[in-house]
Amino acid sequence: MDQLTLLAVLAVVVVVAVTAISDRIGVAAPILLVVVGVGLSLIPGVPTVTMNPDIILDVVLPLLLYAAAVNMPATDFRRNLGAIGALSVVLVIASAFAVGLLLWWLLPGLGLAAAVALGAVVSPPDAVAATSIGKRLGLPNRLVTILEGEGLVNDATALVMLRSAVVATAGAISVGGVLADFGYAVVVAVLIGVLVGWVSIQIRAHLEQPVTSTAMSLVVPFIAFMPAEHLEASGVLAVVVAGIVTGIKSPRLLSSQARVSERTNWRTVLLLLEHGVFLVLGLQIAVLVDEVQEAHLSVGDALWLGLLVTVVLFVLRFAFVAPMIAVMSRQQERARGESQWFDDAFQRLDALPEIPERRMTTMRRMITRKQADATFFSNEGIGKRGGFVIAWSGMRGVVTVAAAQTLPEDLPYRPQLILIAFTVAVVTLVVQGGTLPLLIRILGIRGSDEEELQRELTRLINTLTEASVNLLESPTLHRDDGQPYSEKVLELTRQRTRKIPETVSTETMQVWTTARQEQQELQRKLLEAQQDALLDAQASGVYRSQTIEAAQQFLDRRNMVID
What we know:
Largest sheet: none
Distance between the termini: 43 Å
Number of strands: 0
Shape: globular
Radius of gyration: 26 Å
């Protein structure tokens, strides 16, 4: 136990140190940690570290996916669902069968189902390294969203395929059975995820202490994961759906203090989990080589097969992304021609005979949302350079190695297959991940224009301020006990409210403070009005997710002193 504790402490120290160094030298921490882990594993006397695949797949993975899903802007995910679905479902399946057929041909005695099982293991890219690089270098938000969305869903596709392929090794399943199993796993997982996400956020809304709300959030991934796995559905997909539902509902139901506290605590958890598993991945090399040698198999054969599989995956991803980008380009062209149609739609709506106001509002919101989607697709094109980055970002990670270790013990070539998966993960992380920053610089890809984002943020803050002004001028505004607010407090609040747009920038957000209870109560009502206005703006899809997020953080920080 003492040795285990010492190893855990040293691992945390290494993770923190390497993460700090990575920021200075410009190399993504996951890549550097893998290299450090491999180097440590080759030093004589370093304790052997083994990876428990059940802990990775049943504990670490749900936490990582849930945290990513909560922070995934729902509007961006919806708009890019086509590209995300193509990469995380179609490409994963195609990759699994391509690799499976290759290994079935090269390894005599390995059944097709077993070969496809390993293909499923190496098919899902890990988005952690790619998105960490992309965000640091300022990739366009749409590119980062597609990579993050792919990373959220592709593990579910791969693990369902792996389970079906393992069952098929015993000849107990047909092609139709595989399709039925996949459909069942997806539908049940989505239903469980929606239910868990909705119920959990309703419960957390009634928890007064931010600490208890954060503690509850740490178990939500497992509340979604366990029943889905018990029903033989996709546990990881249930976790992702629960996270997305939570992310949509939390701004309306959770206090700002609870959200800020949760955000801070989760960042610490994710730092240790995300980076820790990459360190453990690197430390696995010595163990995997020993297992291959003990099975009297060739380490060299496993390594060159791993390199060959890496090349196949690389070529297949490029071949798949090229037509996908062409489809997205046509979508952009169509969107550019739709702007006049929406202008005409608003005019036709105004010319309609008198209809109920509620229905008119709904129709206007629907058209505004469609118009915002068209503007997004028109202005946020990916292009060939963006497609090149997506194709290059096919790095595999720790899930690949962990899933490989769940292969049946009696499978032919099992130690070699695990080492092949390890080789694919390390080579793609180090080679593709290590060269991705250089590729981005060579291609000259830039993120969103900061001045444009500032103008958009200012416009949105003006909308929120207008909501506050309207509330201050409303004759129905009263204190909770029914008494009117004093004119002194109202005037002071009006003055401060008018100054809000002057204090906002994309770099600094001012914390709004009040001293007296009456002022705090009034400020809470104002912020509730602003939050409602922000949610309406988010639902309309007019503003980009970066702008919505910046405005949400602005409101949260101002609201902390009130809650």
